[in-house]
Amino acid sequence: MTSRIAAAVATCALSLGVLASGAGVAAAAPSAPADDASSLRPAVDARAAAVDRCSYQVVRSHDSRYVYSVSGVFGDGARELTPQKEDYVRFSGDWRKVVQVDACAGGRGQVPTALRVTGKLERPENYDPSVPRTIHSNDLKPAASSVIPKAPELTSVDRLDAATVRVTWKPAQGNPDQVVLMERKPFYSSEIGVWHPYTFQWDVRAGATSMDRKLERDADIPSDARAHSYWTRVIKGGFVSDLRAEKPVTVEP
Description:
mainly beta
């Protein structure tokens, strides 16, 4: 698949995925006047928490023009931290980028006193000089690991009929703000006529421990894109369950 087609697939899939989840897409706001109070706020809105002794979760806003990194602030200065896993997550209708980083990579065990997000303009030659080349968050004091919620374990994926499965999980603990069923399945891009895997996020009603999902069984789906995978996430207090702990259960249609 050429890079042009891949880009079109990603754009089309993201648009439909957002619509399917009931979320909207926010356009970038124009630059505020220099004397406006908003100009004093950091360009990257972010929060951080420890997941364990070495791993930290950063939940941030996203501007697709920039390439982001997370640095740890230590006694001897700051250094960029190794990414472990990242994904887009919808928090109460607002899509945020969730990134988990490793502060112990390379044998270092020092705990950072703060984290800092930096975004660098990916293709500065394509933008007016007024567009900032580098943007930052404030220094983030990581919250304790107790704020990271735990996702309930899947217990089964049962076939109800040839085209339907029921996904069941254990009850969520700790009164989360939202339980989410994640579903990765074939998605059809009508604009370019291609089937490819795409991940959807489905909010679960309070107290529910199962959801029925339809399998995509179109004969034109290529064999390497036919599998369906399911796992859960939990959102609470602006953070999401540990992305590294997700263990999808996969079924063939």
